[in-house]
Design brief:
alpha+beta, Alpha-Beta Plaits, eight-stranded mixed beta sheet, four-stranded antiparallel beta sheet, 10 helices, 36% helix
Amino acid sequence: MLTDELKRYAWQCQSELKLLIKELCKLPAPSGKEELRAEFIRNWFEKQGFRAHIDEALNVVCPWGVTEDNQVVTVMAHTDTVFPDLEPLPMEEDGRYLRCPGVTDDTAHLAQLMMCAVYFMKHFPTPSTGVLFVANSCEEGLGNLKGSRKIVHDYSKRMQALITLDGGSTLQRVVNEAVGSHRYRVTVRTEGGHSFNAFGNRNAIHVLSTMIDALYRVELPHEEGSKTTFNVGTITGGTSVNTIAQEATMLYEYRSDHRHCLEYMRKFFESVVEEFRAKGFEVEVELIGDRPCTGDVDKDAQQALEARINASILRITGKPADFASGSTDCNAALAEGIPSVCISTCLGGKCHTREEYLDLESLEPGMCLALDFLSEIFAS
């Protein structure tokens, strides 16, 4: 429940929160290269008087009331951004907006997590159920959930719930179902040759284009309430305009929030690959991303978690939660049967673009939402 004290903190911490967001934005953090942010976050927690460590997956873990064998709840926000830059990204404050690539997804959420963690550890009694505050790595793209998978692997038998702060489209949106995906790098090779003298030789670009056409002819599987998609994201290959391409590569993915549909897409993809191999084409397939769907989660425990976040959203926004499926750090936990939700605690726009921005006026109500929800979780 959002007490007057929690409301007061949400208001009083705004200057410090905004400064922390800006400090984090200055530190580039592509997936797998989050060292600068991880070190900053660990040092920040230690300056606040709390111990934190960086694990082998580049997660920053700050435990609260965690013993060798008690149950734990994990609260996380990811440190990585979708951008590959290793130099500081441009940042500009424009009235109510802070503009910087990655500022909403997920830097502002990360800063809110840090501010919430310190408040609870300073002002709340140590809970009997331990809490792991985690600034996790590798949520974006081909990071393949390395950070959250590591935490789930280490604590899965003890983890009661996982909550992650991510998103930014609306404070009502809650991800409670995992969208699984398989991502592939597919390379076709042929003999190639001179475009005039060797005309008639097989062209790898043409073969790959034909394969893409076959993949796009799939009849999508249907399970009640599910959604399945597919996409070719990039194509590369060839040498010059007067060369018959010897090699061409694509990045291909399919997604679904239903395990049976994901399996159907896998079998279809493999059947297309085998069809082209049977025609004598060299086709190399590399699985570069594998995100699981929701597994066998205890329905009562999951519904109880959803009821709590719905109640918090109603108190803060006056509107009910909008539950949806998504691909988030929750995938790692939901796949292992751990009740999980992903919530948004700030608002922004143009995420995953160079024009990304954060609505600074959303930070206070977002902090109220986070404090309200987490106080209920920690008090239970």
